[in-house]
Amino acid sequence: MTITVFIEYRLDPYKRDQFEEYARRWLDIIPRCGGDLVGYWMPHEGTNDVAYALISFDSLAAYETYRARLLDDDVGMANFRFAQDERFIASERRSFLRQVAPG
Length: 103
Fold this sequence. Notes:
Shape: globular
Structural class: alpha+beta
Mean pLDDT: 96
Number of helices: 3
């Protein structure tokens, strides 16, 4: 069963450009580490402090393998440090979803 990790980010609205740079870096890192990146979405109109990401995996086990690879990836870890140092993410929520199959 494919699962999709839905990540909701609360951003510092004055640091959206930094978050966008952070998201762009994941476009290469996530697939290299085994995730099927659906994409990142930035605020455009309306709420200016919420962004989203969706990443799919073949299973929860595949997600766990991806997380382990990410921890060993120097570029990925540097991107995590960038977020911590610059503090543009106020909070992050993850939901694990499965697609509804036709009856």
